[in-house]
Task: inverse folding
């Protein structure tokens, strides 16, 4: 059965002073930083989390506390 999800444009969620940038906390040791830079989107992990890409899915590994 399909799951309902919300779809947002980056500037709908961002702060007025930084319309092309967003920080998302997913848990205590993971934060996702999304930045629109010219013609590309940059995703970084400020806490230094490692990740794998499997079948187009980004899997983020928690960084030990």
Result:
């Amino acid at each position: 059965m399909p799951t309902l999800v919300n779809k947002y444009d980056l500037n709908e969620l961002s702060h007025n002073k930084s319309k092309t940038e967003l920080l998302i906390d997913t848990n205590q040791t993971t934060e996702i930083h999304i930045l629109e830079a010219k013609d590309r989107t940059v995703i970084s992990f400020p806490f230094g989390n490692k990740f794998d890409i499997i079948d187009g899915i980004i899997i983020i590994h928690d960084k030990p506390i």
Observations:
- The longest strand covers residues 30-37.
